[in-house]
Design a protein that fits this description.
heterodimer; B: alpha/beta; 6-stranded mixed beta sheet; 10 strands; globular; binds adenosine-5'-diphosphate; binds magnesium ion
Chain lengths: 871, 222
C-alpha cells in the first residue's frame, strides 16, 4: 500500500514539477556537499596529524620534546639513568633544501639525524626487505653520507652514490646518497620528502652541536607507563613535554581545533541555506495540494497515509540529493585538500603533508542522516497542518484568495527576538573580555550561533518594514503595484528574503573577516618591512612558515664582505634574526630574537601599539636588564601591561623579563615575543639565525642590489636574497590558502541562496497564475508583466541586501574584533571599505536579477486561457 | 457589415493522446450595442468561444472581425493593447486585484495604459457612483460582499467605455437577489453606453435580460 502511494503519488508529484524538484535537489545536495567536504577535510587533517605522530613515534612508549627547537643533550643521560627505561633514542630534525623553492611550493626536505644502529627499534624504514645501506662500512667511514627515500630518488632521476648539494653550517657541501629507505614510517608521513644522516653528522652539519630535538623512549613492559611519565615530568620540568602517542595526537589536534571550529560553522551555515529550500518546497507542495489531500481523506486515507505520501516524496528526494551531495563533497574535498594543508602548515607551523581524503561508510551515513533529519524537520509543521485538512476541502468550490488575511504578527515577534539575540551577542562578545575567567574560550562559538540566528530572525522583519515604508513614497504605478504584491503575502516575502539574506550575510561576513584579516596583517607586514635600503638573506625556502633552514651566525662575517654594505655610525649593517617557537604555559608562541641594528636604523622592524618606536627599541636593547616586547594578543592572554615582569622557562632555567612595550605582530596567531639575540643566546644557547638583514648603500636600489649580490649567494651559498616586502607577500599567500575554503564556501552558499530565491520566486509566480492571467486579460502587456515581476524580485533582492548589510556588518564587526580574535588568536581590526561594499552590492543586484529573470519569463509566457482556468 | 463577424471559427486542443475539436466551425454576426446571451450545456465550448472573441487565445481556424478589424492578424502586443482599450471582461470569480483599492482596480486598465491615477480618478469615480459604490472607493476587495465585488468588476470593464464587453457567468457566484441586481445594472449601462455585451450563462432567467439568445452545443451554434 505504502509503496503504491509512493509510486502513484510521491514519485509522480516529483516528476510533475521537474524544475522545482531539480532546484530542491541541487540546493540540498550542494548544502550537504559543503558540510561533508569540510567534515572530510577535517578528518583528513586529523588523520594526517595522527599518521605523523604514529610514524615518528613508532614503537616508542613515550616521547620527550621541548619547544621544537631542541634541548641540551645532557637530558639524554639524565633520562637513561631512570629505572624502567629500556632504550632512549635521540633524534635531530632539521629542515633543509635540496632544490631552490622560491615560491614555497615544494616545501623543505626533512632531514632526520638518527642513531643508525638503534633508530629502527622505534621507527620503520624498511618495507621491501632490501638493504637500506648496501655498504655500511663506506657509509659510516665517510662523513658525507646520506640516506634518501626511493620515491624521491626516482622522481629526481638519481641513484646510489650520486651527490647532492646541501647548505650546512660550513657552507654548501656535497653529500652522497649511500642508502635508500622505502616510503614507510617517517618517509611516508613526509610524502617521501625526507632524508637521513647519522645523528652526529647532522648536529655538525646543521650547527646543532650539543642539542637534541626529541628523545623516544622504550620502556620495560614491567613498569607502568604512567609512573615513568610522572617521574620524567618531575625530573625535566615544565619546559618539556613527555607524551605518549595519544597525548601527542591530542596536542597536535588542539592546534587545528579553532580553525576547524570556524570552518565547520561555515559549512553548517551553507547547509542551512540549502535546508531552507526544502522547507519552502515542502510548504508549497502541501498548500498546493489541499484539495488532493481532502479527496484522499474523503476516500478513506488515514493520517498514516497522508504522512507516508509526503514523507515518501521528500525524504526520498532529500536522500537522493544527499547521496549526490556526498559525491560532490568528496570532489570538493579532494579539490581543496592541498591548499588547506599548505595554509595550515604555514600558519600553525604544523606538518600536514599527505592529506588523503577517505570517504567511509560513516561519512555516507552522516550525509544521509543529515538529509533525512533535515527533510523530516522540514516536514513536521506542514504535515501537522496537512493532517487538519478536512475532506470537505475536496468538494469546496475554488476559494477566492485575497491574500491579505495573513497578518505578519509572528514575523514581528520573530524580528524582535532576533534583535534581542543580536544585542545579546554584541554584549556577550564585547564583555567576554571581562568575564573570560568565567566563560573561557568555549563560549565563542556560541556568539557565532546567536549572531547568525539573530540575523536570520531579524532580517525578514526588517525587509518587510523597509518595503512597507517604501510603499509610502510616491512611486510610479508599476513599482507601487510590485511592492503591493510583495507585501500582500508577508510570510512568503519573508521566507523568500531569508534565502538571500542568509546566503548574502555569509558572503558579507566571510568577506569582512577576510578583508579584515588581510588588511590588518598586510598593514603590519608593510609597516615592519618598509625599511629602506635593506634586503633579507635566508636559506632557500619560505620564512613565514618557518620553512627555511636556519643559518649559522658565523655567516655574518661573510656577508659583511659583500660590496656596497652600508658602513655608518651607530649602525650595524648585517643583523641576524632568530625565529623559533617557544612554549609558555602549554601554549605555543613565536619568539623573535634580534641583533641590535643600532639606533641609526630607527628600529624599523618594531611596530609599536603604544609609545615611540625609538623608546621601544631602546628598551629592547637595554644592556642593563633583560627586556622583551610582546604582541597585544599575548599581553591580553597573560593579562600583562608594559612595565610588568614576565617569566619564561628557558633552557637555562626560569628567567624573568621586563615587558618593554606592546607591539603589533601577526607572524603567529597565538602571539609573538621579541628579545635580543644576545639574551636569547645566553639562555637558549642557540647560535643559529633564521634570516639576516643587510643594510646597503642608499646609492643603489634594493632590486639592483639583489641583482648585484643575489646570483653569487644563490649559486655558491644556497642563499636567497629578497626585498623585505617578500615576507609580506608570503604572509598574504598563506592567508589566501587559509581563506580558500571559507571563500569557496561563501560563494557556494550564495549560489544555494540564489537557487532558493529562484525557487521561491517561481513558486510565487505559480501561485499567482490566475491573478496574472486576469491582469493580462484586462490589458497588461507581456513587457509590462516582465517588468513588474523583475521589479518585484529586484526590489526584494535589493531590500534583502540592504538589510543583510545593516545586520551583518555590525555582527561582523563584533565577531572580528572579539569572537574570532579570541577563537583564532589573532587580534584583528575590522576593515570594510566602500569598494567592498560596492562590489558586494553589484553582486547582490546580479544575484537577484538572475533569480528573478526565469520566473519573470515564465510569467510573461503564461497562456491566458489556462491561467484563467487555473485553480 | 456587422460589428462582430465570426466565420467558420474552429478550435482544436492538441494533446499527446489525441486532438479534441472544441469549436467546430462557428458562424455568427452581432450588431453594435446588442446584448447577447450565450447558453448551452457544460463543456459545449462557451468559455472557449468567449476567450477567442476576447483575443485571450488564438483560433485554430476561421476568422473573427471586430468593427471590421481581423483580430487574428494582430501581434500579441497589439492584441493586449486592443483588449486594454476596446474590450471589457467580467469573470465569474470577479478576479479583482487584492492589493489594489476599489478605485485603483477600476482604474487599472487606464493605469496600464500609462495614464496617471489623477487623470483617471474622475471617470472611475463616476462609474463607481453609478454602480452605487461611491462609499467604497478606498476599500480593498476583501472588505466587499460578492455582489459589490462583481459591481466593481463591471465598473472596471466599463471604465474605458469599450465597444465590447465579454462576461463569463457573471452571476455564477452570486445569490439570486444580487445576481438580479447586477444584471439590471449591466443592462442599463450597456444600453446607455451603446456597448455590445456577450454574456455566457446557464441561468435561464439571466438569459432573459438579453436582446438575443444564442445556444451552443458540441462546439456549434444551434
Ligand atoms: N487546454 C485544454 N485542453 C483540452 N481540452 C480542453 C482544454 N481547455 C478546455 N478543454 C475542453 O474544452 C471543452 C469546452 O470547454 P469550455 O469552453 O470551458 O466549456 P463551457 O464553458 O461551455 O463549459 C471542455 O470539454 C473542456 O474539457
Ligand atoms: Mg465555461
Amino acid at each position: 500500500m505504502f509503496f503504491n502511494l509512493f509510486r502513484y503519488f510521491s514519485l509522480r508529484y516529483l516528476l510533475l514539477n521537474p524544475f522545482r524538484t531539480f532546484l530542491t535537489f541541487l540546493g540540498v545536495s550542494l548544502g550537504i556537499s559543503l558540510f561533508l567536504s569540510i567534515l572530510l577535510l577535517n578528518d583528513a587533517t586529523l588523520r594526517s596529524l595522527d599518521a605523523n605522530v604514529e610514524s615518528m613515534t613508532g614503537k616508542a612508549d613515550l616521547t620527550i620534546t621541548s619547544d621544537g627547537m631542541g634541548f641540551e643533550d645532557s637530558v639524554l643521560e639524565k633520562v637513561k639513568g631512570l629505572p624502567g627505561i629500556k632504550a632512549a633514542i635521540p633524534l635531530i630534525i632539521n629542515y633543509a633544501y635540496l632544490e631552490e623553492d622560491p615560491t614555497g611550493s615544494t616545501g623543505p626536505m626533512i632531514f632526520l639525524g638518527i642513531d643508525l644502529l638503534k633508530d629502527s627499534s622505534v621507527r620503520e624504514y624498511n618495507k621491501t626487505g632490501e638493504d637500506i645501506i648496501p655498504d655500511p662500512l663506506a657509509f659510516l667511514n665517510q662523513a658525507d653520507s646520506i640516506i634518501a627515500t626511493r620515491s624521491w630518488v626516482k622522481e629526481r632521476g638519481l641513484e646510489l652514490e650520486n651527490t647532492v648539494e646541501l647548505l650546512t653550517k660550513q657552507g654548501v657541501k656535497n653529500f652522497a646518497i649511500r642508502g635508500l629507505v622505502d616510503d614507510v614510517g617517517p618517509a611516508k608521513a613526509f610524502n617521501g620528502r625526507m632524508a637521513i644522516m647519522d645523528i652526529d653528522a647532522a648536529r655538525y652539519n646543521f650547527g646543532r652541536d650539543g642539542l637534541y630535538d626529541r628523545i623516544d623512549l622504550i620502556l620495560d613492559k614491567t613498569v607502568p607507563v604512567a609512573s615513568v611519565q610522572a617521574q620524567l615530568k618531575g625530573l625535566l620540568g615544565s619546559r618539556f613535554r613527555v607524551e605518549d602517542k595519544e597525548e601527542q595526537s591530542v596536542s597536535m589536534q588542539q592546534m587545528v581545533k579553532s580553525i576547524q571550529d570556524v570552518s565547520g560553522m561555515l559549512g553548517l551555515i551553507a547547509f542551512l541555506v540549502g535546508f531552507l529550500i526544502i522547507v519552502n518546497t515542502v510548504n508549497t507542495a502541501i498548500s498546493q495540494r489541499r484539495k488532493d489531500i481532502g479527496s484522499l481523506r474523503a476516500f478513506g486515507a488515514g493520517n498514516s497515509h497522508i504522512v507516508a505520501l509526503f514523507a515518501g516524496e521528500f525524504v526520498f528526494l532529500s536522500l537522493v540529493s544527499s547521496l549526490f551531495g556526498c559525491w560532490l563533497g568528496v570532489l570538493f574535498a579532494n579539490g581543496s585538500a592541498e591548499q588547506m594543508a599548505a595554509g595550515m602548515n604555514a600558519t600553525l607551523l604544523t606538518n600536514v603533508s599527505s592529506m588523503e581524503i577517505i570517504f567511509t561508510v560513516e561519512h555516507l551515513l552522516k550525509g544521509l542522516a543529515l538529509g533525512f533529519v533535515s527533510s523530516s524537520a522540514a516536514l513536521v509543521y506542514p504535515l501537522y497542518k496537512a493532517l487538519q485538512i478536512h475532506p470537505i476541502e475536496a468538494i469546496k468550490p475554488a476559494t477566492v484568495d485575497f491574500g491579505l488575511h495573513q497578518r505578519p504578527r509572528n514575523l514581528v515577534l520573530f524580528g524582535y527576538l532576533g534583535f534581542v539575540l543580536l544585542i545579546l551577542t554584541g554584549a556577550g562578545a564585547v564583555s567576554s573580555d571581562a568575564v573570560e575567567a568565567l566563560q573561557g574560550k568555549e563560549v565563542q562559538p556560541l556568539f557565532l550561533l546567536t549572531g547568525l540566528a539573530g540575523i536570520v530572525m531579524a532580517g525578514p522583519y526588517l525587509v518587510l518594514l523597509f518595503l512597507s515604508n517604501l510603499q509610502r513614497l510616491p512611486l510610479p504605478f508599476l513599482l507601487n503595484f510590485s511592492l503591493a504584491n510583495l507585501l500582500k503575502n508577508p510570510a512568503r516575502t519573508a521566507s523568500t528574503s531569508i534565502h538571500l539574506s542568509l546566503g548574502f550575510s555569509l558572503v558579507i561576513i566571510v568577506s569582512a573577516i577576510n578583508v579584515s584579516f588581510k588588511s590588518t596583517i598586510i598593514t603590519w607586514a608593510n609597516a615592519i618591512t618598509s625599511t629602506p635600503n635593506a634586503v633579507n638573506v635566508t636559506s632557500w625556502g619560505s620564512v613565514s612558515g618557518l620553512q627555511v633552514q636556519p643559518l649559522h651566525e658565523s655567516l655574518k662575517e661573510k656577508l659583511l664582505q659583500l660590496p656596497k654594505v652600508l658602513v655608518a655610525e651607530r649602525r650595524n649593517a648585517v643583523n641576524g634574526i632568530r625565529i623559533v617557537p617557544v612554549t609558555i604555559s602549554g601554549e605555543r608562541f613565536m619568539l623573535k630574537a634580534f641583533d641590535n641594528p643600532g639606533p641609526a636604523s630607527r628600529y624599523q622592524f618594531i611596530d609599536p601599539i603604544e609609545g615611540d618606536r625609538m623608546d621601544l627599541g631602546r628598551n629592547l636593547f637595554d644592556p642593563t636588564q633583560d627586556q622583551v616586547l610582546m604582541s597585544e594578543t599575548m599581553l591580553s592572554k597573560f593579562k600583562k601591561r608594559p612595565g610588568d615582569f614576565f617569566d619564561i622557562e628557558t633552557p637555562a632555567g626560569p628567567k624573568r623579563f621586563r615587558i618593554g612595550g606592546n607591539i603589533r605582530e601577526f607572524a603567529s596567531p597565538n602571539g609573538v615575543i621579541y628579545m635580543t639575540r644576545d639574551t636569547y643566546k645566553k639562555y637558549w644557547k642557540d647560535p643559529l639565525v633564521t634570516l639576516f638583514t643587510i643594510a646597503h648603500s642608499p646609492e643603489i636600489t634594493g632590486k639592483a642590489y639583489i641583482d648585484l649580490v643575489g646570483p653569487g649567494l644563490n649559486q655558491k651559498e644556497h642563499l636567497m636574497v629578497n626585498l623585505p616586502s617578500k615576507i609580506g607577500e608570503e604572509v598574504q599567500k598563506n592567508l589566501n590558502n587559509n581563506m580558500a575554503m571559507s571563500d569557496s564556501t561563501k560563494w557556494i552558499a550564495l549560489f544555494i541562496g540564489t537557487l532558493g530565491l529562484l525557487n521561491s520566486f517561481l513558486i510565487g509566480i505559480l501561485q499567482r497564475f490566475r491573478e496574472l492571467g486576469c491582469i493580462r486579460s484586462i490589458g497588461m502587456t507581456r513587457g509590462q508583466l516582465l517588468v513588474m515581476i523583475l521589479t518585484e524580485s529586484v526590489t526584494l533582492g535589493m531590500t534583502g541586501i540592504v538589510v543583510a548589510f545593516l545586520l551583518t556588518l555590525p555582527v561582523g564587526y563584533v565577531w572580528v574584533n572579539w569572537t574570532l580574535s579570541r577563537l583564532l588568536g589573532w587580534k584583528v581590526e575590522f576593515y570594510f571599505t566602500g569598494q567592498d561594499l560596492l562590489i558586494l552590492s553589484v553582486i547582490g543586484v546580479v544575484v537577484s536579477l538572475s533569480a528573478g529573470i526565469l520566473p519573470a519569463l515564465r510569467a510573461s509566457r503564461l497562456k491566458l486561457r489556462e491561467a484563467l482556468a487555473y485553480e | 457589415m456587422s460589428f462582430i463577424e465570426v466565420r467558420d471559427l474552429r478550435k482544436t486542443y492538441t494533446s499527446s493522446a489525441q486532438d479534441v475539436e472544441i469549436l467546430k466551425g462557428i458562424n455568427l454576426d452581432i450588431a453594435k450595442g446588442e446584448f447577447v446571451s450565450l447558453m448551452g450545456p457544460s463543456g459545449a465550448g462557451k468559455s472557449t468561444f468567449l476567450q477567442l472573441l476576447g483575443a485571450l487565445d488564438r483560433p485554430t481556424g476561421g476568422e473573427i472581425r471586430i468593427d471590421g478589424k481581423a483580430i487574428g492578424g494582430l501581434s500579441d502586443h497589439d492584441l493586449t493593447i486592443f483588449r486594454r482599450r476596446h474590450l471589457g471582461f467580467i469573470f465569474q470569480f470577479f478576479n479583482l486585484m487584492p492589493t489594489l483599492s476599489v478605485l485603483e482596480n477600476v482604474a487599472l486598465p487606464c493605469l496600464l495604459d500609462g495614464r496617471r491615477i489623477s487623470e483617471v480618478r474622475k471617470p472611475a469615480e463616476t462609474i463607481l457612483t453609478r454602480l452605487g459604490l461611491s462609499h467604497r472607493l478606498d476599500h480593498r476587495p476583501h472588505q466587499l460582499s460578492g455582489g459589490e465585488m462583481q459591481r466593481v468588476a463591471i465598473a472596471r470593464a466599463l471604465v474605458n467605455r469599450p465597444a465590447l464587453i465579454l462576461a463569463d457567468e457573471p452571476t455564477g457566484n452570486l445569490d439570486t437577489k444580487n445576481g438580479k441586481e447586477v444584471l439590471a445594472i449591466l443592462k442599463d449601462l450597456v444600453s446607455e453606453f451603446q456597448t455590445t455585451l456577450i454574456m455566457v450563462t446557464h441561468d435561464k432567467s439571466a438569459a432573459d435580460y438579453a436582446d438575443r439568445r444564442i445556444h451552443m452545443q458540441d462546439g456549434v451554434v444551434v
